[in-house]
Amino acid sequence: MNSHPSILERSLYRLLAPRHALPQFLILGAQRSGTTRLYKWMMKHPQILPGTEKEIHFFDRNFQNGVPWYQLHFPARKRMGDNRITGEATPYYLFHPRAPERIRHVLPDVKMIALLRNPVERAVSHYFREAHMGEEDRPIGEALRLEESRLKPELEKMQNDEFYFSEIHHRKSYKTRGIYVEQLKRYFDLFERRQLLVLTSEEFFSDPENALHVIFSFLEVNAGFVPPRIVAQNLSGRAPGVPESVYEYLQKYFEPHNEALFQLLGRNLGWNARK
């Protein structure tokens, strides 16, 4: 579907949308934390139907297209029945400053899943993804230290124009995306805590069967279902070629933010332990 629908297309969307379901769950992120694999395994559940794609980006870059446009990305109501649900996974939702209010307006009762990775490892992984895609040409240490000056003008534009989409905010927010406490607070301020399930990537990858059991219970589908061919994975290990000084810088940067997150969640996720 066209990301910038015409007047005629909008009319058609309004006509067709009521035949489709709206999502009962959203995977909010975080980026580079395993959301693609989580979504893939969840879609094997017989009670969970996929949307047209994993990442629809409605509540961040396509909100101006309207709810009917969004609704048409999900299965027809006649396919849903009484015991099926549908949802999507757009990792930018956790980080985008306007996403929580938009979600609250459109889906006030939705259930949300946040998958959080150690922010030091997430930042390094994020950097290398952008470098591999040709979006980042600075060395990692320089890119990390430039982040605040890069993001500041973009945040001002986003504040002044609710539909402004910033590629820089989306792509070069290596450290800021790992300040999970600020992002989760925005959701906790607008939704009841029972609507948001927070897991870590380490929990998910080390014991995916148990993590999926927790998620399926949270979504109130058959929690005994185990997707075929799920394999545990060890996420630990540092990226080759990254100077130790970069890891030391990131560890120090994230320590106070992690402590605030642990207090918010009421549990220590172990990310501040020195390696």
Low-confidence stretches: none
* Number of separate structural domains: 1
> Mean pLDDT across all residues, rounded?
95
Strand order of the largest sheet: 2-3-1-4-5
CATH topology term? Rossmann fold
Structural class per helix/strand content? alpha/beta
- How much of the sequence lies in strands comes to 5-15%
- CATH architecture field: 3-Layer(aba) Sandwich
Instruction: Give me the strand/helix succession.
Output: HEHEHHEHHEHHHHEHHH
**Strand tally, please?**
5
What is the terminal-to-terminal distance?
47 Å
Describe this structure in words.
The model has no long low-confidence stretch (mean pLDDT 95). The chain is globular, with a radius of gyration of 19 Å. The chain has one domain: Rossmann fold (3-Layer(aba) Sandwich), CATH 3.40.50.300. Helix content is 47%, strand content 9%. It has helices at 7-16, 35-42, 67-71, 77-80, 92-95, 99-106, 119-132, 140-160, 167-171, 180-188, 201-206, 208-219, 244-265, and strands at residues 25-29, 48-50, 85-89, 111-116, 196-200. By secondary structure, it is α/β, with parallel strands linked by helices.
What layout of secondary structure does this protein have?
Elements: H1 7-16, E1 25-29, H2 35-42, E2 48-50, H3 67-71, H4 77-80, E3 85-89, H5 92-95, H6 99-106, E4 111-116, H7 119-132, H8 140-160, H9 167-171, H10 180-188, E5 196-200, H11 201-206, H12 208-219, H13 244-265
Parallel strand pairs: 1-3, 1-4, 2-3, 4-5
Could you write a compact summary of the structure shown?
It is built from 13 helices and five strands.
